[in-house]
Design goal:
This protein is α/β, with parallel strands linked by helices and 333 residues long. The chain has one domain (29-313): Acetylglutamate kinase-like (Carbamate kinase), CATH 3.40.1160. It has 12 helices and 16 strands. An 8-stranded mixed β-sheet has the order 5-8-2-1-11-15-16-14, sandwiched between helices. Helix 3 (52-67) crosses helix 5, helix 4 (79-88) packs across helix 5 and helix 7 (202-213) runs parallel beside helix 9. It is globular and about 70 Å long. Bound molecules: adenosine-5'-diphosphate and N-acetyl-L-glutamyl 5-phosphate. The record marks 43, 260 as: Transition state stabilizer. Substrate binds at residues 78-79, 100, 199. One of its GO terms (cellular component) is cytoplasm.
Length: 333
């Protein structure tokens, strides 16, 4: 028998605090019900992984989502980590239109850092809690296929080297891992038809995967609270915007936020009811977004899809206890 220590010196304040805690917990109830069994794609940006503390808290949040009955899929970047390794290796890199111009030499380092280091570290941190995370590269099992991306700057085509435009997503391997009760962790490297690999912006990769999986949410963690209306002059947070409002805003956005908001638009137009930008510097902001009434950050939503999600419409095959629970019964902690 396990007994809890009792505190005979508990005051009225302690009691009020306990009631507050219980109220906070119960606030999660409708959200637990709505998102149980749902797939949520979480994009973990390199700027939100700059300290050990943040990485550990992120892994805890992902495992919390898992135990709460959601099906989290992590797609990660690692821009600052790539830049640091390129610097250390004496390889120059520049950005055009928010994308890293990637030579063949830089591509080797991008792949090594994303799939060999960042991916391994996230998998390791999640798996401190149990045998959940399985790391993969977007190259694996044809998850992401890409071709050379072409961009126009001032009307002129600019070559970005091995930067990829996603041409296909085969979510089969990720879906199989989810069905097996795992947490897929995906790096944003794509396979090319010519046998090579491409560097894909991680926001774009996360959004493409969210669409292909039919996810209920795409949540992107970054190093600002969300979208600011008139950045950098003004940092007033936009808490919610619809597809038409976002389309009107896109031409005014600059580096960093542009691929993120484009990714939100692609996701929502592709059938994902809600796409969010949240502050990854705040420990457990992911949980505040999913389980509180107010949420945090910026949400882009399609009203019709969102209404169906919030009304609790379930995919036909949905059951409260899906096969992950069966596996858990079979011996998982
Ligand atoms: N309108 C905007 N609102 C908020 N941040 C913006 C905006 N425009 C540009 N940014 C910049 O975008 C950055 C986030 O993008 P990025 O650095 O690519 O992050 P990540 O590594 O998380 O993908 C912010 O730190 C901010 O400097
Ligand atoms: C083409 C391109 O720019 N790829 C990105 C991939 C990593 C990424 O997107 O990382 P964050 O999410 O941390 O920004 C890069 O090389 O930095």
């Amino acid at each position: 028998m396990i007994s809890r220590p009792t505190d005979s010196t508990a005051t009225g304040d302690d009691r009020a605090e306990a009631i507050d805690k219980a109220a906070n917990l119960i606030e999660a109830l409708p959200w637990l019900s709505r998102f149980h069994g749902r797939t949520v794609v979480v994009k973990y940006g390199g700027n939100a992984m700059v300290s050990e503390e943040l990485r550990v808290r992120f892994a805890e949040s992902i495992v919390f989502l898992y135990y709460a009955g959601l099906r989290p899929v992590v797609v990660h970047g690692g821009g600052p980590q790539i830049s640091a390794m390129l610097d250390r290796s004496g390889v120059e890199s520049t950005f055009t239109a928010g994308l890293r111009v990637t030579t063949d030499e830089a591509m080797d380092i991008v792949r090594m850092v994303l799939t060999g280091q960042v991916n391994r570290e996230i998998v390791g941190l999640v798996n401190r809690h149990g045998p959940f995370a399985v790391g993969m590269s977007g190259e694996d099992a044809n998850l992401l296929t890409a071709e050379r991306k072409s961009v126009l700057v001032d009307g002129e085509p600019v070559d970005l080297g091995r930067v990829g435009e996603i041409t296909g997503v085969d979510p089969g391997a990720v879906a199989a891992l989810l069905a097996d009760g795992r947490i897929p962790v995906v790096s944003s490297v794509a396979r090319a038809d010519d046998g090579g690999v491409y560097n894909v912006n991680a926001d774009t990769a996360a959004s493409a995967l969210a669409v292909a999986l039919g996810a209920s949410k795409l949540i992107m963690l970054t190093d600002v609270e969300g979208l600011y209306a008139d950045y950098p002059a003004n940092t007033e947070l936009v808490s919610r915007l619809g597809v038409d409002e976002l389309k009107a805003l896109l031409p005014t956005l600059s580096a960093g936020m542009l691929p993120k908001m484009e990714a939100c638009l692609t996701a929502v137009q592709g059938g994902v009811p809600q796409a969010h930008i949240i502050d990854g510097r705040v420990p457990h902001s992911l949980l505040l977004e999913v389980f509180t009434d107010q949420g945090v950050g910026t949400m882009v939503a399609d009203e019709e899809l969102e209404a169906a999600l919030l009304a609790g419409d379930r995919p036909r095959s949905w059951r409260p206890h899906d096969n992950r629970t069966d596996h858990t019964d079979g011996g998982r902690p």
